[in-house]
Every structure is written in structure tokens, then in C-alpha cells.
Amino acid sequence: MTTASAQRELLASDAALSRFLRGLPGVDQVGAEARAAALATRSIKRDAKLWALDRAIRMTDLTTLEGADTPGKVRALCAKAVRPDPTDDTVPPAAAVCVYPDMVAVAVEHTRGTPVQVASVATAFPSGRASLDVKLADTKDAVAAGADEIDMVIDRGAFLAGRYSAVADEIVATKQACGDAHLKVILETGELATLDNVRRASWLAILAGADFIKTSTGKIAPASTRPVVLVMLEAVRDAEEIIERKVGVKAAGGIRDAKDAIRYLVLVHEIAGPAWLTPELFRFGASSLLNDLLMQRDKQRTGAYAGPDYYTID
Amino acid sequence: MTATNWQYAPAPESRDIVDLRSEYGLFIDGEFVEAQGGATFKTVNPATEEVLAAVSEAGAEDVDRAVAAARRAQTDVWGPMPGAERAKYLYRLARVIQERARELAVVETLDNGKPIKESRDVDVPTAAAHFFSYAGWADKLSHAGYGADPRPLGVAGQIIPWNFPLLMAAWKLAPALATGNTCVLKPAETTPLSALLLAEILQQIDLPPGVVNIVTGAGATGQALVDHAGVDKVAFTGSTSVGKQIQRALAGRPTRLTLELGGKAANIVFDDAPLDQAVEGIVNGIFFNQGHVCCAGSRLLVQESVLEPVMGHLKRRLGTLRVGDPLDKNTDLGAINSAEQLARITELTDSGVDQGAQRWQPECQLPDRGYWFAPTVFTGVSQSHRIAREEIFGPVLSVLTFRTPDEAVTKANNTPYGLSAGVWTDKGSRILWMAERLRAGVVWANTFNRFDPTSPFGGYKESGFGREGGRHGLGPYLAV
User: Fold this and answer.
1) How many domains is chain B partitioned into structurally?
2) Mean pLDDT, residues A175-192 taken together
3) Which residues from chain A sit within 8 angstroms of residue B428, using beta carbons?
4) What is the percent of chain B with per-residue pLDDT over 90, rounded to a whole number?
């Protein structure tokens, strides 16, 4: 299988798609966890660390996905994303703010003229339990409000029931509804449970046209884990040979400190390769992570830690 | 925004934690003493060729003193001591190894050339684990399956190699001491320092004098130990050729013998293997410890139908191996232990090229000084090539193919060695089928080079006899 036509053929037939996904090499969980743990012992120091901290800031999708979100909260988040540290203009901006669809307009207004993108969750986030029409309307609504990126959820029920085509069809339809907006496909790996499933769901999303595959909604534990991201990175790496494009990976939820973020970047570097070390191809979905990145950045540059109150809580 | 080449900054482990002396004596009867002839040899850092220390070279008289001290200690102190009391010393030894782990790891890396991440994460913790495990046996020997009150043999002469100096010392000393034997240990001449640091630790824990004696030196010292009539048991880990010499020397004597010798292990990858993990297992199998591993997976047997993806993944993976300063925490592949070993690896790889196999090496920058060899993969290897038959003991992988499980077994077993093997498949029944047929002391399933103190280790055929580790490891030190 090499070309787009072969890809279309797979998506056209439930049987062909199932055969392909079940024919992928298995993942040995013990081995995958050992590999992730081994790469976590990489010691990233000095310039390499400073580079990683800046890069992690640029890769962060600053996120608020609460029932209690208000325009004021989103405004504050946008200000933080555009200028993470008001006292230091060498700090790069975050990649994006990530909000619910009804907050997209507010986010667009407060990020206009900046490099910060507006990402919106859609498709009945976080459960995805709605009809396709409702999911597509949700997506179109967010795109119409000006979202640059759409974070959709897959139908995990359909996936676990083995109805792979149903999952793929929804991704294809959502991709169409996105228009020019980038599509991130949330696999919700915490509900898929096995690494074999993570590999299959990754390939399924990639074949169906995802620009990014994303671990989690952040509403289910466990959210992002390094073995899961390892398997997803292997999928985008291997898929490039077939689909002839690079798909991004977003690790979302549970990444709270700079040390952990750097361990993820090591995975990206050594599994997918250096080409993936850009915000176009790797993102963190996080909120509290950003302040630790800022704090560690200052420590790296000045040799001393400032207190937590020197970093804004938004 | 484009990706830039993210270079990891150097992250060297500090040498300051180690206080190396410029000279080391022999450790006999609880004290460091000079060799009677005053002879010394130098031990170097293979990564830089820097001389680390001058070490006494034990002659036959020194070995005699050491064996006599061990005999006294065995008869008067260690043999009569209740097992529970011996256990206290062993637990204490294990704890101090843990406390001084960083120091031991740095010394091991300096003297051996192995990456600090391996000495830190494998050698030292596994050595401590071995003492902990056997400490637990010391008061339970009556329940180990060797009779109601199994007796120790007496004095054990133990000769260990340079590839895992501290860990091999632990493998030898722990079961011997737990069972009430005393020891004369001879470390390899290129890597004596961690054993000598261990001797300082034995002083620190107040181990009674003479229970462990350490005689440093080369082959002649080892021979003097083997030839000594006062030794009741010889345990040797090293090359098959030296193992054969030892067995010949002991013929007709009542001295017990265990040998853990060379290997040419097959790492067998079936078409349904978890591909990425299998590739990790291949890398770990042959590039762990620069391939200086007797159970290394030096022959890769790949099912022909998946040769292409396996080789593609493997070559890409090897491009990310970090070769260089062993003290750097990010180094994956360190220095070759000695000029002599480097010459042997070079000679054998040259023979691979001469006999028609295809050599492949990833791009990597080797340091100017020291002993280095780039990770090497040979494809198009036949069973009749020397690189498929002889133990290279270096970072060199020979890739062969097979078509059916029967052929995999036949090729895997078609070697004079039989130490270890690896099987990679998602099919549980096939793992068991293979394990029944592989003539190897250890068969790893979907993993490789995993060591645990409770798991017996040892060989078939010319890989030696006797088992180390676990309950099985007690037997060779008991008069049963």
C-alpha cells in the first residue's frame, strides 16, 4: 500500500480496514513501557534544557475546558498564551488556546494579530455520544466562530465494538466540516486500555485524514502517559512512509511539570525524529504546565528559583 | 517554525565522588598487602587510555597466603557461624553497596568503559540484589532441597571476567558466603578496581578477616589459584578456551568446578513479533555493554518474510545510538574494554567482510583516544561464516534468516555454545514450543538480557556447566 487511492480503498470497506488494523504488528506492553522508562533517564542539561523549555512553551495548547468557563476566564487565558511572562519579552508565546465552541469567538477576539491559534473541542466533547449531525453542527459552529483547530473525539464505543469504519467515517466527515481548520483527533487512550488499541486507533485516525492524533480529553484517567505517546509517535513515524505526510501528536492531560514535558520531547526526538520537534507536529494540552516551564526557564537562566507568586495564575 | 537539531548537552557524572588511590595491594586476611615479589600492573580507563592505578600482581606465594587465610577463616569463624549470623553480614554488604552505589558505578565505568547509565541502573543495583537474595538463603539452607543440614565445601577459588566486574564478583561471592564457604577471588586484570573498592566495603562492614580474599593479576595468578591444592571448589566465568584449560588442570582432583563460558546466542524474531519491541530487544541483545556479554544475542535470526521491516527499523534505531564518553549519562554505547579485545573484534569483523557478508554501520563519531568500535551489523551472513560461529564479544550483530520454526531451532542450536536464546512472537504456544527445543540455559521470551538473582543462569555444551542464581546457585557450593 503506497498511495492515496489505496488509502481510500481501505476506508471504503469495513472488512479491509479491519484486516489492515488487526494486521498491524502487536505492541508488547512490557517492552514499550521499558523503552519509555529508559528514555526518561536521558539527562537534559544547560543549553539543551533551555531549548527544550522554550520549545515546550511554543508547543503548549493552553487549555480551559470547564463548565464554569466564562468570557473573563478565556480572556485571561488568551493574555497568558500571547505573553506567558509579562516581565520577560524573550518568552515565546504558547501554540494555542483550547476552549469549548461557545468560547471560540472570545478567544479569537483576544488573540487576533498574534501567532496564538484558537483551538476548539467539538463533536460532543468529551464523551462523543451524540448523532453525527449534532457532532458536525458542533464542529461547523466552532469553525464559523473562527477556530483554527478542531479537537474532535472518536466514538470509542464504536471502536471497542470493532466498528472501525463507523469511527473512520465520522473522522472523514468532521475533517470535511473543518474546511481549512486543522483537525486533531482525540483517541481517549484511557478508554482504549491496551497499547494494541492505541496503535490501531492511531492508524485509523491517520488514514481517515487527521492532522494530529491526540491522547486524551483530560476528563478520563489515565490521560496522557509516555508509553501511550511512544506508540502514537511510532504510528505517525511509520505512517509517513505510506501516506507521504507527517501527522502531529498531541499529549494532553496529566503533564504538570517541565521535567515531564522534557521527557516527552525526548520521546519525540528519539522515536519520531527531530522533524517532529515543532509546534506544527507536537503539542502539549495543558494548563498548569506553563508556569513550571516559566519557572524552570528562569532557573536555567539566572541560577535561582523565583517564588510561585512571580508567575501569574490565570 | 522548523525543527532544529536538538543536541543534548554533555551530562557527565562527576568523578569527584571517587577517591581512587594511585596504588592498590592485594586484599588478604582483611588487610591490603603488597605482593611478595612487589610486582604490579597498571589498569587503564579504556575510554581515554589514562592510567587509573597501579595494582599488585599476585604470584603463587600470595595465592598461597590468601588460600591459607581463607582456610583459617572457614574453619574457625565462617563455617561454624550460624546461617542467621552470616546473613547479617550479607545484608549489610548489600546495603552498603546501595549506599555507595554512585561511587561503585563511577569506578566501574572508569575501569571498564561501560556507559554510566548501565553501571548505575544495571550492574550495581543487580549486584546489591544478588547479595540481598542470597542473604535470605543463609539461614534456610535446610529447606533448599539439599538435605537436612547441607555442609559447605570449604574454600572457593573464583575467577571472574572483565565485562561485569562487580556484578560477577557478587554472583560468585554471594552464594559461596551464604552457604558458609570462604573465598579467594581473582578479578580480571583489566578491571580490578571495583573488586578492590568492594574490599574496602568488606572492611567497612567488619567482615571477619580471611572470609573474602582478593588476589589481582592476570592469567598466571588465576592458574596459581586453580592449581592450589587447598582450593575445594573453582568457579570460573570467562572464555571457553580458558575454561577448558581449567577443566583439564582439575582432572583427577577432587576439586569441584563450575564454568560459565562463552556464547553465540540466537535472537529469533518471528513474523508475528511485536516489531518495535523486538527491535529494542535486538539492540539490547547485542549493544548492551558494547556486546561484551557472554549471553549476548549476537546472531539475529529473522523470519525471512519480515526481514525488510525488521532491518529498516533496526537501522533507523541504530542511528539514534549515542556512542562516546562512558561517564556521560546519555551515552548508550561506551568503550571497548581493552586494545586486545578491540583487535579481536576488528579481526573477526574483517573476516566477515572477507567471507562475503555485508557490513553496515550507522554514522557515528568515535573519540580519538581510547578503544572504540562503531556498532556494526552484518547482513547476508551464512551459518558457515566465522562471524556466525565464533564469539566476537563486541558490538557486532550477524543477521541470518529462517523460513520455518523448525529451521529456526536447527540454526539456533547449530553452535558449540548454548548459553542463551531469545524468542520474539505474539504467540504464547510458540514460545513454549521453542523453549522446549532450544539447547540454551536461558530462553528469553519477548525480552533479552534480563537478569534476576532468583533466576538460575548457566550454559549447555561449551557454554559451561553449573548454575548461578536462585536456589540452583546454592548447590555448587554445598557438599551434596
Assistant:
1) 2
2) 98
3) none
4) 99
Nearest-Cα distance to chain B for A18, in Å, is 17
B181 occurs within a structural domain = yes
- Does the residue B405 lie in any domain? yes
- The three cell numbers of residue B186 are 581473582
Q: Cβ separation of B446 and A32 shorter than 8 Å?
A: no
User: What is the ipTM metric for this complex?
Assistant: 0.95
Are residues B333 and B380 part of one domain? yes
Cell digits of residue A78: 488568551
Residues B330, B391 share a domain: yes
Tell me the chain A residues in contact with residue B8 when contact means C-beta distances shorter than 8 Å: 42-45, 48
The Cα A31–Cα A208 span in angstroms is 29
Q: From CA A265, how far away is CA A258, in angstroms rounded?
A: 10
Report if residue B473 sits inside a domain. yes
Question: Given A34, A35, A48, which is nearest B6 (Cβ)?
Answer: A48
Q: At what angle do helices A4-12 and A226-243 cross, to 10 degrees?
A: 120
Q: How confident is the model over B466-475, as pLDDT tens digits?
A: 999 999 999 9
pLDDT at B3: 59
Report the SS3 class of residue A153.
Answer: strand
Q: Is this prediction's pTM over 0.90?
A: yes
My answer on whether B271 and B346 are in the same domain is: yes
What integer best gives the mean pLDDT of chain A?
Answer: 96
pLDDT exceeds 60 at position B1: no
pLDDT exceeds 70 at position B2: no
Predicted pLDDT of residue A20: 96
Residues B326 and B473 in one domain: no
Q: B320 to chain A: nearest residue by CA?
A: A270
User: Residue B194 is part of which domain span?
Assistant: 23-260+460-479
Q: Do B254 and B271 share a domain, yes or no?
A: no
Residue A74 · residue A99 · CB < 8 Å: yes
In-domain check, residue B357: yes
- Please state, in angstroms and as integers, the Cα–Cα distance from residue B317 to each residue in A273, B322, B329, B381, following that order: 10, 11, 19, 21
Same domain, B103 and B225: yes
Query: What is the arithmetic mean of pLDDT over B285-307?
Result: 98
Dump the DSSP string for B399-467.
Answer: EEEESSHHHHHHHHH-SS--SEEEEE-S-HHHHHHHHHH---SEEEES--S---TTS-B--SGGGEE--
pLDDT value at residue B423:
98
**Whether B7 and A44 lie within 8 Å, measured CB to CB:** no
pLDDT tens digits, residue range B156-198? 999 999 999 999 999 999 999 999 999 999 999 999 999 999 9
> What residues in A contact B275, CB-CB < 8 Å?
25
How far off is chain B from A275, nearest CA to CA, in Å? 6
Residue with cell 511554543: A58
Sorted by sequence, the CB contacts under 8 Å of residue B147 that are 6+ apart come out as: B480
Q: Is the pLDDT of residue A5 over 90?
A: no
Put simply, the chain A residues between 209 and 238 with a CB less than 8 A from any chain B CB are 234
| Mutation to test the B interface, candidates A28, A60, A236, most B Cβ within 10 Å | A28
CA distance A98 to A78: 10
CB B58 within 8 A of CB B69: no
Residue B174 and residue B280 share a domain: no
- Beta carbons of A274 and B447 less than 8 Å apart: no
Which tens digit of pLDDT belongs to each residue from A146-171? 999 999 999 999 999 999 999 999 99
Mean pLDDT of chain B: 97
User: pLDDT tens digit string along A93-129?
Assistant: 999 999 999 999 999 999 999 999 999 999 999 999 9
Taking CB atoms and an 8 Å limit, are A52 and B280 in contact across chains?
Answer: no
For residue A8, the SS3 value is helix
Paired residues of A149 in beta bridges = A119, A182
pLDDT at A3: 66
Q: Answer whether B9 sits within 8 Å of A49, measured CB to CB.
A: yes
On whether the CB atoms of residues B27 and B43 are closer than 8 A, the answer is no
